Amino acid sequence: MDRKEVVVGTRASPLAVAQAEWVMSCLSQLHPELEIRLQTVKTSGDILHDVSLLRIGGKGVFVKEIEDALLSGEIDLAAHSLKDVPTDLPHGLVIAAVPVREDPRDALVSASGVELADLPTGTVVGTGSLRRRAQLLAARSDLEVRDIRGNVETRLRKVRAGEYDAVVVAAAGVRRLGLASVITQYLPVEIMMPAVGQGALAVEIREDDQQMATLVKGINDYDVETATRAERALLAAFGGGCAVPIAAQGAVEGERLLLKGLVASLDGQRLLRDEAVGADSDPEALGEMLAQRLLSRGAGEIITEAVG
Predict the structure, then answer these.
(1) Which of 52, 107, 110, 304 could make an S-S bridge to 171, C-beta 3.0–4.6 Å?
(2) Record: fold of 106-186
């Protein structure tokens, strides 16, 4: 292989940089002969950090500019949080590796150190996610759930400053930043099912770059890749957007793939949960099948109401 340098692109946030540097470290261990360089790319999601995600186009705003840099050859691979990557990739790009997954659960960080079940009525909880909002309201309709934007550190700082009594964030992000000690409670999946791909990273490359495909193959985790393919197939079957509270969690057990899914109304009054088991050899089929089961139970009505 004649490649001597690899340029890794990512968002400029501390978490994104930490994730990219972890990917770079994994690659360096496998390919010590390579010079691996980091290049940060400012995305529209980072620039418009005070605007609701729905108003600026959803989660794709965190990856579009990075994918543009990848397509133009400015970078050789992109390191993303998988949950930020839309289910429809631009023509010419592929996810070539999904490394080992961090904790996929959501975490509650409360200023008082009180867990979700014991928060006083009227507690102000911040989240920028419709999925988290719906499940919070389903569990505790007496809470005041407010929108919040900004990176992980910004959200934690707003709790310390008293702007919010608590926030719900991805446990993976807090842990990757070395801040696990601030977590008040890891929320059980039965209360807060994670976002599709949460806790996993995506290594995206140009489809025709066979050298990069060979280089990153060694950091792929088969079980995580398989589970997240099923999760993303379920989301794609619902349209792949973030305007509806949709959650999923997959896990490979031997040669079986277990997939759990959830669709909720925006107010948390209706929560549809289901799960399915299939062969790990066809995760997309399992994701599509579970989506159809949820649709047959009324998920279509919930989605129509949410986007209408």
Answers:
(1) 107
(2) D-Maltodextrin-Binding Protein; domain 2 (3.40.190)
- Please report, for residues 150, 159, 176, the alpha-carbon distance to residue 173 in angstroms, rounded to integers and kept in the order given: 13, 16, 5
Catalytic residue among 46, 50, 68, 84: 84
Q: What are the residues facing 126 on neighbouring strands?
A: 146, 167
Torsion angle of the four alpha carbons 16, 224, 107, 305, in this order, in degrees rounded to the nearest 10 = 100
CA-nearest of 126, 129, 176 to 156 is: 126
Q: What per-residue string of b and e applies to 43-77 under the rule 16 or more CB within 10 Å gives b?
A: bebbeeeeeebeeeebbbbbbbbbbebbeeeebbb
Domain spans, the chain: 1-100+200-220, 106-186, 222-308
Fold of 1-100+200-220: D-Maltodextrin-Binding Protein; domain 2 (3.40.190)
Q: How many CA atoms lie within 13 A of 217 on its CB side?
A: 7
CA distance 71 to 63: 12
CA distance 244 to 95: 24
Per-residue pLDDT of the chain (308 residues; tens, 9 = 90+): 578 899 999 999 999 999 999 999 999 999 999 999 999 998 766 655 555 555 545 557 779 999 999 999 999 999 999 999 999 999 999 999 999 999 999 999 999 999 999 999 999 999 999 999 999 999 999 999 999 988 999 999 999 999 999 999 999 999 999 999 999 999 999 999 999 999 999 999 999 999 999 999 999 999 999 999 999 999 999 987 667 899 999 999 998 999 999 999 999 999 999 999 999 999 999 999 999 999 999 999 999 888 76
